[in-house]
């Protein structure tokens, strides 16, 4: 390239950069609870100093207006995010546990035909339990146990053909398993509890996919039972599994070479995409780290706080893994996909919304919900939620919030 055209090109690039808004608008014109940040700020800041122990919104930077967004409820990087929420949508506290118990930590299953959200508590003294939120009156009750089969140490779950499917981590004597619960009678049965006589490590989350009149249950499995519930050492490797109830077949379909510690799992509306999150151990940004006796961290580079997408074929088998996103901090735990294919994840900084291609559109800010001390301590992170038609239900440990959406973004998915 000659010198003259090169000067013109550089001048044009500088002009475009100078004219591109990189500053924050403290208040959205249609919703005072939305703070707009240019998407450029996600990869370009002026004189910045970030810290992995703090939210992105707490990054020290000279970029004009950036710090005004720190305590906003909704953070937008794209107008598509703004369009998801009703005018002046805000956090609405609908329930606070009177004893302060962490009833709202995992799961987030919307039963669309019963106007309920099922959720699981955090593990206390190696025990967790299921609770049911009635959205018609915002009351919460424990899951009844009419036939003596208790859902032991529940984690994630899904809703399919009028039945609730829950991943249970078991304990030392009760094997980890997948439960099926009738939401009308609450009759419960175990549908999966072993692989050729071997115990699972601890089913984490489940989802159903349906193509061509057939349906398959996918679930993730990792060593949760041993870690949180005094369970036995896992006897099978971490994996993502596919159960075909018509063929009576259980198959491992994603192994540790693809996803080391599989966590959240969901499919899109037409079951052509499968999304699975990975979990580093211990929970640090980037590669996994191990502390030696001298306190030195050895980075093993074996896992990351990532979200992966897979193609699902007509027979319900995943292929073509693609890195879809990486959590800025903590892990991507709770996972839901709306009818338009947007992927919602519960992460330490908040509930993050990504486009079908993976672009971060915005997030519900955990700092505004839980406060700086809780969010940055990581002791009770905001990690799960439910998409309930035109309502976002935020599970915030011992509190439950809702945010009104502009329209029904899910019709019958969990």
From TrEMBL:
Keywords: Signal
InterPro entries hit by this protein: 6-blade_b-propeller_TolB-like, Oryzine_lactonohydrolase
Keyword Signal (UniProt): yes
UniProt cross-references to Gene3D superfamilies, sorted A to Z: TolB, C-terminal domain (2.120.10.30)
Residues making up the signal peptide according to the UniProt record: 1-26
PANTHER family found in the cross-reference section: PUTATIVE (AFU_ORTHOLOGUE AFUA_1G08990)-RELATED, SMP-30_GLUCONOLACTONASE_LRE-LIKE REGION DOMAIN-CONTAINING PROTEIN-RELATED
Protein name in the entry: SMP-30/Gluconolactonase/LRE-like region domain-containing protein
């Amino acid at each position: 390239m000659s010198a003259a055209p090169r000067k013109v090109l550089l001048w044009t690039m500088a002009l475009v950069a100078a004219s591109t808004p990189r500053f924050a608008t403290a208040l959205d014109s249609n919703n005072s609870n939305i703070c707009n940040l240019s998407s450029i700020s996600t990869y370009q800041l002026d004189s910045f100093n970030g810290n992995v122990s703090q939210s992105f919104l707490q990054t020290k930077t000279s970029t004009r207006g950036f710090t005004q967004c720190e305590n906003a409820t909704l953070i937008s990087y794209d107008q598509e995010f703004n369009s998801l929420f009703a005018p002046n949508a805000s956090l609405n506290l609908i329930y606070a546990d009177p004893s302060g118990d962490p009833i709202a930590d995992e799961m987030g299953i919307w039963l669309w035909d019963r106007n309920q959200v099922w959720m699981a508590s955090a593990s206390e003294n190696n025990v967790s339990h299921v609770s049911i939120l009635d959205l018609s009156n915002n009351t919460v009750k424990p899951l009844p146990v009419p036939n003596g089969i208790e859902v032991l140490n529940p984690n994630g779950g899904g809703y399919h053909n009028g039945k609730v499917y829950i991943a249970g981590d078991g304990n030392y004597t009760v094997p980890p398993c997948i439960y099926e619960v009738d939401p009308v009678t609450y009759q419960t049965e175990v549908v999966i509890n072993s692989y050729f006589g071997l115990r699972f490590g601890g089913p984490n989350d489940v989802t159903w996919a349906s193509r061509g009149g057939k349906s398959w249950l996918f679930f993730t499995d990792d060593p949760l039972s041993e870690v949180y519930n005094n369970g036995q050492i896992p006897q099978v490797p971490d994996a993502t599994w596919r159960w075909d109830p018509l063929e009576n077949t259980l198959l491992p379909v994603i192994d540790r070479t693809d996803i080391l510690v599989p966590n959240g799992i969901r499919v899109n509306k037409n079951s052509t995409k499968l999304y699975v999150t990975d979990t580093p151990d211990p929970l640090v940004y980037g590669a996994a780290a191990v502390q030696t006796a001298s306190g030195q961290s050895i980075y093993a580079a074996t896992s990351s706080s990532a979200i992966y997408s897979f193609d699902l074929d007509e027979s319900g088998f995943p292929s073509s893994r693609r890195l879809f996103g990486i959590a800025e901090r903590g892990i991507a735990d709770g996972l839901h996909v709306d009818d338009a294919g947007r992927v919602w994840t519960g992460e330490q900084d908040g509930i993050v919304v990504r486009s079908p291609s993976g672009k971060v559109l915005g997030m519900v800010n955990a700092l505004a919900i839980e406060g700086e001390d809780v969010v940055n301590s990581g002791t009770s992170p905001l990690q799960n939620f439910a998409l309930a038609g035109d309502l976002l239900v935020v599970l915030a440990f011992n509190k439950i919030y809702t945010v009104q959406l502009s329209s029904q973004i899910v019709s019958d998915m969990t």
